[in-house]
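Input structure tokens:
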């Protein structure tokens, strides 16, 4: 049985997977008003203790899945050095009963390395078609979610204070493909993470993912080595879409490829990236490294590092970089090749509502930016899902200015 009540785009994949595209915009993520995804599969069980949750996972694994686990409000230590939820079942939903992401907290052993280097993930998604929604994952020695299965769907999840990554896509069996991560918050609640080997979404050999409408904060190293990206697809990944995300004070923003480890294709569009440079390290906002055939459209990048967007290495070619608004250079390094169109690289702080806190919505009456971009078929809305263009041409950057948007979605 499949049932849901949120607005959705229903796609059957291999006769099994129902892709529920529950909607939100970035303002709802920031204000914690995202609508929960009221979605169930198969048999439904409700749990109210950590032992009941672990038993439900075991039941799903032994039966092959086709099951929904609803979690009562509470805090649950589900992952320890002795065991953590290793989910081999497919067609499984794990979500809070009442849809409040802050009221259900699944956690591990704490935000530190284990004494004997044991692995502790809050959830490990090995099966296919796993949905995780409307809860918090935190405080573990490794990752909030590790994934090797296909069709992971993450909606309205708060992930915070892990010792390594928030979502780690491993390369086992060719990597995890077709993931959707949306409407979620990734953060360190202090201004720095616990070590340098931390990252937001870090995926090896991942194809056809969509990462949209998320907020990333403070993924920053406390020492001399850079943290990993807020979002990075590399090690033979391809055709991923990163759109409408806000990235605040992270050492590195969005990366496709890493060094000689490649990515192919994909689109990075309508993202806002801000870094005030106060952490020990800061680096590029958007980096393409060995990433041919990639499109970088309508992003706003305001950072202290000298280059807002870099395209590096000879393997990075046939790249389009269009309609981006930055305060720093867009630069080729190590032989990277790209076509640059209608980008502005000298943005001033008074062009924005409040750049000092990363509010990069355009101020009114800015003829340098408003209507000055080229119209792109592949960019039909902005970061807040305002349709583009509002007049004759696209505005440059992630934000499409309208008078109405200034007084809606909680703006003042």
């Amino acid at each position: 049985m499949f049932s849901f009540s949120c607005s959705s785009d229903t796609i059957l994949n291999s006769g099994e997977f129902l892709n529920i595209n529950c909607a939100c915009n970035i303002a709802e993520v920031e204000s914690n008003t995202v609508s929960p995804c009221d979605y169930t599969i198969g048999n439904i069980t409700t749990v109210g203790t950590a032992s009941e949750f672990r038993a439900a996972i075991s039941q799903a694994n032994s039966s092959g899945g086709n099951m929904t686990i609803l979690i009562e409000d509470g805090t649950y230590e589900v992952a320890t050095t002795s065991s953590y939820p290793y989910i081999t079942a497919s067609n499984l939903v794990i979500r809070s009963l009442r849809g409040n992401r802050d009221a259900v907290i699944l956690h591990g052993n704490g935000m530190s390395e284990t004494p004997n280097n044991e692995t502790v993930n809050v959830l490990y998604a090995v099966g296919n078609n796993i949905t995780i929604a409307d809860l918090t994952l935190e405080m573990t020695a490794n990752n909030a979610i590790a994934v090797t299965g296909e069709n992971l769907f993450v909606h309205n999840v708060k992930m915070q204070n892990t010792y390594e990554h928030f979502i780690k896509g491993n390369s086992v069996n060719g990597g995890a493909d077709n993931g959707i991560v949306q409407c979620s918050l990734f953060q360190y609640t202090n201004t720095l993470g616990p070590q340098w080997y931390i990252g937001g979404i870090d995926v090896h050999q991942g194809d056809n993912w969509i990462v949209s409408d998320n907020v990333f904060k403070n993924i920053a190293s406390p020492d001399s080595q850079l943290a990993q990206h807020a979002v990075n697809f590399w090690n033979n990944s391809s055709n991923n879409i990163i759109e409408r995300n806000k990235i605040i004070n992270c050492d590195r923003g969005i990366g496709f490829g890493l060094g000689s480890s490649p990515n192919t294709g994909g689109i990075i569009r309508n993202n806002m990236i801000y870094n005030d440079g106060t952490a020990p390290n800061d680096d590029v906002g958007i980096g393409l490294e060995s990433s041919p055939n990639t499109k970088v459209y309508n992003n706003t990048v305001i950072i202290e590092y000298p280059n807002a967007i870099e395209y590096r290495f000879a393997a990075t070619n046939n790249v389009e970089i269009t309609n981006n608004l930055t305060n720093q250079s867009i630069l080729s390094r190590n032989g990277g090749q790209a076509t640059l169109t209608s980008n502005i690289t000298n943005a001033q702080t008074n062009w924005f509502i409040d750049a000092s806190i990363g509010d990069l919505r355009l101020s009114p009456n800015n003829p340098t930016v408003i209507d000055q971009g080229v119209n792109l078929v592949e960019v039909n809305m902005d970061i807040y899902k305002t349709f583009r263009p509002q007049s004759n041409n696209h505005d440059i950057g992630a934000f499409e200015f309208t008078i109405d948007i200034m007084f809606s979605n909680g703006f003042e």
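The longest helix spans residues 50-63. The chain has one domain: 2-407.
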